[in-house]
Fold this sequence. Notes:
- Chain B: InterPro entries: TMEM147.
- Chain B: It is found in: Cell membrane; Endoplasmic reticulum membrane.
- Chain B: It comes from Eruca vesicaria subsp. sativa.
- The complex is a heterodimer.
- Chain A has 15 helices and 19 strands.
- Chain A has helices at 2-11, 21-37, 94-102, 129-147, 162-177, 246-268, 291-299, 302-307, 335-351, 372-378, 411-429, 450-460, 475-487, 520-546, 548-565, and strands at 41-47, 50-53, 56-60, 65-70, 83-88, 109-114, 150-151, 155-159, 187-192, 204-212, 226-232, 277-283, 308-315, 323-328, 354-359, 383-387, 490-497, 502-504, 509-517.
- Chain A has an 8-stranded mixed β-sheet, with helices on both faces.
- In chain A, helix 6 packs across helix 12 (450-460) and helix 9 crosses helix 11 (411-429).
- Chain B is globular.
- Chain B has helices at residues 3-23, 32-48, 51-58, 64-76, 78-87, 99-122, 130-157, 166-192, 202-213, 215-224, 230-259.
- Chain B has one domain.
- In chain B, helix 3 (51-58) packs across helix 6 (99-122) and helix 4 packs across helix 7 (130-157).
- The relative contact order of chain B is 0.15.
- The A-B interface holds A 1, 4-5, 8-9, 11-15, 18, 21, 25, 28-29, 32, 35-36, 39-40, 183, 189, 191, 513, 515-518, 520, 523, 526-527, 530-531, 533-534, 537-539, 541-542, 545-546 and B 1-2, 4-5, 7-8, 11-12, 15-16, 19-20, 22-25, 57, 60-61, 64, 67, 70-71, 74-75, 78, 82, 85-86, 89-93, 156-157, 160-163, 165, 168.
Amino acid sequence: MADSKKPKHQRYHSTAIESMYPLLALMLILVACVELCDAATVVDAYRLIQYDISGVPFGSRFSSLNHHAASLSFQRGADLSRSVLILPLRELDLGFLQDYISQKQSLGGLLILLPERFRPGNVGGGDVISETEGLRKLLAQVEKLLVHGNIPFPVYFAFENEETDAMLADVKKNDALGLQATATTGGYKLVISVSEPRKIPSPTITNIQGWLPGLRADGDSNQLPTIAIVASYDTFGAAPALSVGSDSNGSGVVALLEVARLFSTLYSNPKTRGRYNLLFALTSGGPYNYEGTQKWLKSLDQRMRESIDYAICLNSVGSWDNELLVHVSKPPDNAYIKQIFEGFSNVAEDLGFQVALKHKKINISNSRVAWEHEQFSRLRVTAATLSELQSPPELLENAGSLSDTRQNVNEDAIIKGVKLVAESLARHIYGHQGKDIKIFADDSSLAVNPHYVRSWLDLLSQTPRVAPFLSKNEPFIMALKKELEDYTAEVSIQHESLDGTFTFYDSTKASLNIYQVASVTFDLLLLLVLGSYLIVLFSFLVITTRGLDDLISLFRRPPSRKVKMV
Amino acid sequence: MTLFHFFNCAILTFGPHAVYYSATPLSEYDTLGTSVKAAVVYLATALVKVVRSTHDLDLVSESRGYNLHFRFHFHFHFHVQLVCLATFLQVSETEVFDPYQEALKAMIGFIDVAGLYFALAQLTHRNISQNHKFQAVGLGWAFADSVLHRLAPLWVGARGLEFTWDYVLQGLEANANLVFTISLAALGSLMWLRKNKPKTLIPIIYTCALIIATMPSITSYLRRVMGWHFPKVVGFELITSLLMAFISCQLFILCQRPSL
């Protein structure tokens, strides 16, 4: 409507634009055409992920939607196979949903309305934290249920707004009364017209590697040892278009970039350049048993791989308070592990928090790789994962769920994590183990930059990063590459295809059209009214212009003809 | 919303014209030719008429009730508007009701009346009574108006999924318009074709004709100055149309009496 106004004003404005009339006419016709399409409310809807593991289907198997809206206040037992059930997260009954899915009941579609605060990039606030915490837990449960189920109807997520609230209130009112949807009582039709979801052909995963060489003493022909810092950057969540994973593993990526920035400053000066090479890697495929990490490691030069002294993997370091865990797969009494852990715990002590060691053996026969360091350990490279998570995550979990948004990540936690890693690395590199030296002190030129951390965290919290949906030249990947280029001497990008066990389907985001519609009953009624109106009009006109007798004779004529024929 | 709804609205918009034709003696005397001629005159008039279209355009801002009127105009009236607006109306469009501008528009609205005059008095009709002539002309005129102004938006809009009352209201407006047009044609035939009418009635006839001819301006005033909504305006139009029809009918009968 606003569009149509503007040219209208111009049109009357002056004769000077007379010559532009044909152009304006064209514009106006275009505007008129556009108006046809958006006569109704349109909101963005995000489809539940659809994927197969070894051919076994999971997630939402359908995408297009064209049904009436229904709410949970309908009479129990009603047939919902031709309705879209709208469930606001605040009122969602998990047991009901569980039953519904496990009993494989048919449903026209499911629309889950999320509070606005779960929108990626929404910093928001002002909500009651306890309520938010409850909702987050519920959302995580719903997500788990949906992601691991095979759901034979379209499932969409959308964010609450005034329009959806108004619609929901109307729909609820009708459902509670058991009313038929009519124009006056507010029937709604939800339409998403998208094509059948298609398989994504050969999804790729992209690893980015940055190389910061150490200083080799003159005449020293031996290769320098290398320390690797690794974080997986991609995500997996119920709605791929919303899966930003601020904590898992946005926080790890941010920490890695900041560590790279700190060491690039140190290494840019030959005096402070350490005798260790630093290898930074942002790996993809994290949710899928760290496939990217595995492929990246295998592609590394044998000599290079063997030169790796140890690797530190960063995973979910954005929302912890007092204790960070060092997960390892070698026994804790292993000399290298001891050395790494002692390095961490000394620094942590100085910084005023604790680190704890957690050991989990690798079961080679099990294909599940719960931690990124396990991929290193499988290739006999010493490695540890720094994480706030207490227990190893299950497959496809803790990888960027809907509830993992910016609001739940604490910048200070990330900064503490960065300090821990950077400081312990520096003490190791410069041989200051066990000494209380602060290289990255807060007010020095080597201080951790909170603005840098925040801006990257914000960016990551707005960027969905489910690997199969990222193209090879995704702007986000290019941005990461550019960032590493700024801090390291040599950056390389590696594209690998994702293992065939996983198949993904497209159409992750769509426009949901909400139409207020009248029922067929209403139209029938209208037809009846109009018909009787025309009949009354007809009779009235005949009577006034030709007289009552004419009207009567009009109805008598046909039978009289029949009589004649007989 | 659906084809069904479109069908309903079309019945409401165009049905009364058909009913009027078949119910009254018009069909018996086969006056279709006269109606068609009137419709052609209407189309010709539309090419030199600006007011109605500008009037409708004014309502763009009003609501989406307006939208309906909006689209067709670009198909039919746009070039006309260009010619006439460039020559007559160098006025910027404002939300305020500008009496001068409205007067100008009303003046141009009388092109309608001129067209009706031409259709009634100048065109050669088959030998039908004055009584039927004005009805046939009014009917053709109103039908052409409905087709031109209402069919396209109806076709485009009423088949959409979204339900609005707008198209039903538009159909009612078409009904009111039919009554207005026939009343105006009746008054026109009294003014131009009947010679021996009672002197005392002449001012009343002219006043009524004036009121009907300025109806578009009146509704525009109601919408823009009084801020009436579409349903209220349509209700007003319906009531006034019936009132005017009644008055015109009485005048017609009064004028006919001396000749009897």
